[in-house]
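so ive been stuck on this for like two days lol. basically i have the seq below and the ligand is zinc ion, smiles is in there too. i just want the complex predicted, nothing fancy, no docking runs or whatever. if the output looks off dont worry ill sanity check it later, just need somthing to start from for the group meeting slides
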Amino acid sequence: VKQTLLVKLGPSPEQAAWLLRTMEAFNAACDYLAGVAFSLSSANKYKLQHEAYHAVRDRFGLSSQMAVRAISKVCEAFKRDRTKRPEFRPHGAMPYDERIMAWKGLDRVSLLTLFGRVLIPVRFSAYQAERLDQRRGQADLVYRDGLWLLLVTIDAPEGEPLDPEEVLGVDLGIVNVATDSDGNQYSGATILGLRRRHRRTRTRLQSKGTKSAKRLLKKRRRQEARFQRHENHQISKQIVARAKDTKRAIALEDLTHIRQRIRSRKPQRATLSSWAFAQLRAFIAYKAQAAGVPVFLVDPRNTSRTCPACGHVEKANRKSQARFLCVSCGCAGNADRIAAENIRRAALSLPDAAPSGVAAKSPRFSGGVA
Ligand SMILES: [Zn+2]
């Protein structure tokens, strides 16, 4: 499974200046090459190389391998849309491969710049460090909000496919970020608390509108995103481990419908955004894939309003965000747990998921990575 890790670089001011000059030269070269490709109306690498390789090296000072990367980047962009000349912004991502980049142990990376190779400190999270032996020698250098980042491509191994005997239904909610059909709740307590605290100061900062207030707001948003990511990793890890340990597949609601549900629940939008949901789902999907656990997607239409005891479907069954009470038979319970149970049942009744050997066929969903 191809996956990308976002890794933070810590260049010195001098190194940062060199990276910036290199990135700008690279993108200027790409922009120039785009003009050549467009006028030749060709996205052929060899043709473009023959035509412009020396010009690119002389004019922009790129190394031989950087010039080759620029040519293939431009050809790929032009192939995607041949009707117009591709454009390259000065701070667009710059691709690195093993000929111009080398990892030095766990905490440094060597990158080629116009001024020679520079050895730059790298900060990995524990999660990333675990996966670094899977890296492929390819990365994109990214400059964002004054930060230098590497998007590292890794090859996560696919787990031995599990032959599940049952299904673990998982409901992604707002108050409890995830609830499974065993009744476990995976809450986002840290992130919710952090957001509450931040919201109080946000209003004050926004009304100020000064430059430093804006900077602080931006910092807060990044901090929240970082916490959210960490929490989503923890939650998805627990869910996948639980499914694997008990030889079960995982069932989730269909993503498109979940987005609609978030939109319809207006007050909750402030606490959990749709990107956080999408991220959690993606984490569950790729961790499941890596563990060999199949993931089934089910139609979510009635998961929150169907009674698991008598099968009665009615909107009024869900009394509140937290409570379920069947208007027909009186069966009551935690609404998220009942939704998770309904998701589990919906997965078991899928045509390619039989109660024994649930994953007789391939899983319906193999998710991308956020
Ligand atoms: Zn009922």
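Confidence is low (pLDDT under 50) at residues 262-271, 354-370. The radius of gyration is 25 Å.
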